[in-house]
Amino acid sequence: MVESEAHKKYEFKRTLEALRNKHGRGTELISLYIPHDKQIHEISSQLREEFGQASNIKSRVTRQNVTGAIESLLSRLKLIPKAPENGVVIFCGAVDIGANKTDMETFIIEPPEPIISYKYHCDSSFLLIPLEDMLHEKKSYGLIVLDRREASIGLLRGKHIEPMAHLTSMVPGKQRKGGQSSHRFQQLRLIAINEFYTRIGEAANGVFLAVDPKDMEGIFIGGPSPTKEEFHSGEYLHHELQKKIIDLYDVAYTDESGLYELFDKLGDALQNVEVIQEKKYMERFMKELVGDSGLSSYGEEQVRKNLQMGSVDTLLLSDELRKIRLTIKCGNCGYEEKKTITKKLSDEDYQPGNCTKCGSGLNITESIDIIDDLSSIADQMGTNTVFISSDFEEGNQLLTAFGGIAAILRFNTGI
Ligand code: ZN
After folding, report:
1. Which residues surround ligand 1, an ion (CB under 5 A)?
2. Is 27 exposed, middle or buried (0-12, 13-18, 19+ CB in 10 A)?
3. Whether pTM exceeds 0.90
4. What is the pLDDT of residues 299-325, one digit of tens each?
5. Ligand 1 center to residue 325 CA distance, Å?
6. Which fold is adopted by the domain 278-409?
7. 1.10.3720.10, 3.30.70.1060, 3.30.960.10, 3.40.50.300: which CATH number matches 5-133?
8. What is the pLDDT of residues 333-357, one digit of tens each?
9. Environment class of residue 347 by beta-carbon count within 10 Å: exposed (0-12), middle (13-18) or buried (19+)?
């Protein structure tokens, strides 16, 4: 299956979420971070040392669990002659499964970014911070600060600002010189302003389009009013970048220090960027829906039809959608149907009943998570898939009022 970046990221997030909820009853969960160039035999000998040390653990249960986990890790390592390109992380330990019971579980993760340093960590929960950092660190933001005389363009990565371009203009001040007609002067001034905005746009395009689009999270613009608003509404940026503008801020400086001033003002906005973008998508969906433009669709059946037609621009999926899509077949006459059921009911509990054609018993031949099912159709059709959390009102509405599945369409299909 072709997987989009958004989908991979979603899966990675889900995996981290699942790992975060696992706890040991003592200090007995082991996290092993192995960089690509680390020799496996060195790790094995270190683990054997840890195994020896574990015999000093006082609690019998913890001791048994730790040595059990180390043995399990050692046998896993035999299957890995060399860590993959980004390295590998192995989580292993006796996980508390309630009712006074534990279960020895192992998780092997190939991270999306290279592991820098080797880590052996034993605690009552798994060590996830290095993986969680990968989720954030890749993000880049474009920063532009401008007035009519000067502009600076920078890139924000993590907490680091890289100033990338600085421009100045010859836009004359508001005061005209003697002998010039007021009307002519205003005209020339507007032309000069427009030219300057165009140059800023071109310079910003050069910087921001060089960043891998999937890492470019958004753009913030700072400056005095109405300059920044004019630049925003005049659409001087490439249309793909124009869509990524998140917000505008009042900033006094427009040289390099203005970039830092803008960054300081972002504050919580950066934390909330994902939610802001999700909100924007939901607002667009609601606008199309309320305006009855025919450019919105919701509910599994309608959205699926639109997806298959290639008419979906953006697929909106609630990240709390928990459903599976079953393929049910009759072994006798070959009758086949597809059915979506909620995940609480696992496919093992689900009774497909009898064939409506011939009366024989039906069998489940395939079961797939609905998110995988819909996003793989979306990937084939060049549709953008966005996962929407239910932490905000419209996101919660997507889950409760629209079945967790909605779409913004490229054209009206009447479906
Ligand atoms: Zn049949």
Report:
1. 330, 332-333, 335, 355, 357-358, 360
2. middle
3. no
4. 999 999 999 999 999 999 998 888 999
5. 20
6. 60s Ribosomal Protein L30; Chain: A; (3.30.1330)
7. 3.30.960.10
8. 999 999 998 876 665 678 888 999 9
9. middle
